[in-house]
Structures are given as C-alpha cells and as structure tokens.
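Duplicate of #3305? Posting structure anyway:
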C-alpha cells in the first residue's frame, strides 16, 4: 500500500481556509454556486502548489504567499475609477472587489453585475478551475463576490471600446470578468489591473466568442 502524508499547512493556507469560513455567509450564490465554492476550498485545503508541481515550477505559490501575512478583507478600503486608456471608452470599474458604479448604456451590449449572476446561479457552470493545478482559479471561485458579465449581441460593431477596470487599495479582492461576443460582432476590450498597498487579489477573465467574432483585447 502506498501512503502519502498530507504536508503541514502553511500559515497562508490556514489563513485562507479560515477566511472562507468567516466570509461564506457574505458571498453571493445559489446552491450550485455554493457547491462550486465548497469544491474550490477543498482544493486549497489539499495545499497550494509549490515548485514540485510542474506548471508552478518557476512560481512557487506556496512559498510566495508566506512571504507576508495574508491580508484581511477591508470593507473600508477605497479605490477610485481611473480615466480610460482610450478616450471615449465605456468604463466598467470594480473597486476593491465591488462593482458599485452606474452601468453604462452601450448600444448592442448588455452589462450585468457578476454578483447578480452569482446569486441566480446562471454562471455556476463557468466557475470550475481550469484543471487540478489551477490554484488561482480555485482561490477565485472560493471567494469571488463581484465583477461584470458583458454580453455583446450578434452582429454588433462597437464604435468605442469597453474598459474593464479592477482597482484595489489594500486587503483582499477576488473578481471575475466574463465577456461574450456574439457571432459576427466586433469589439475592442481593454482590461486594466491596478493596485496599491498590501493586498491579495485574484482576477479571472473569461472570453467566449461566437462564429466570426472579432475582438481586440488589450
């Protein structure tokens, strides 16, 4: 019989597991979403990847997250939306993990807050990490609370870009940005990540393209 001992948890792993228990009642999601969250935290309980994992050979996540204590969630932290990189862009900011700004009206585009899509469970099927080694995906699935779902209708040719901003000013933030570009549609998407202070941020961007869709992603 072969037996493999579970390595002792690091302070970072323990902090993440404890934080999940503390945050669980605050996280949006129906039954299907919460099951995905439970599966994700179980993956973290099995241990963060080290250099012994081939896909993490040059980025020892287990060691890196122990260089500093895992920060707490800071509800009082404030970040401000930034002027877009490309003038005239429709800006969708996520500030310290929350999409509180007024949603812009863009012809041919439907924008929804991810918190709403988590609550009704319509994004549950897309929350699975990309394989057993996707520790960032598991971390995000466990803790994600907000972001955006952008749906560009078939045949839409956008005249101006959309800029997705994930801005953070300390503490933890876990964000997901989902974009669907319909068949034959054309769009330019700018993704902008910026932060200051001590923080732990996970961000997952997912893009689904219809037949003949053309997207420039910056």
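Output from current build:
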């Amino acid at each position: 019989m072969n037996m493999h001992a579970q390595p002792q948890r690091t302070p970072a792993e323990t902090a993440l597991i404890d934080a999940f228990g503390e945050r669980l009642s605050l996280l949006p999601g129906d039954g299907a979403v919460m099951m995905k969250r439970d599966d994700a935290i179980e993956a973290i309980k099995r241990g963060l990847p080290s250099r012994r994992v081939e896909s993490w050979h040059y980025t020892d996540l287990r060691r890196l997250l122990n260089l500093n204590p895992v920060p707490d969630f800071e509800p009082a932290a404030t970040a401000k939306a930034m002027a877009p990189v490309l003038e005239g862009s429709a800006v969708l900011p996520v500030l310290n993990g929350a999409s509180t700004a007024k949603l812009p009206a863009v012809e041919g585009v439907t924008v929804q807050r991810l918190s709403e899509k988590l609550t009704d469970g319509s994004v549950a099927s897309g929350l699975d990490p990309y394989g057993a080694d996707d520790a960032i995906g598991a971390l995000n699935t466990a803790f994600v609370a907000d972001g955006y779902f952008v749906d560009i209708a078939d045949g839409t040719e956008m005249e101006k870009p959309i800029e997705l901003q994930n801005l953070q000013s300390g503490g933890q933030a876990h964000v997901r940005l989902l974009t669907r570009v319909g068949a034959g549609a054309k769009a330019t998407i700018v993704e902008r990540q910026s932060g200051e202070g001590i923080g732990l941020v996970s961000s997952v961007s997912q893009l689904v393209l219809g037949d003949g869709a053309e997207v420039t992603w910056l």
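Confirmed duplicate; merging threads. Residues 31-45 form the longest helix (15 residues). The first strand starts at residue 90 and ends at 95.
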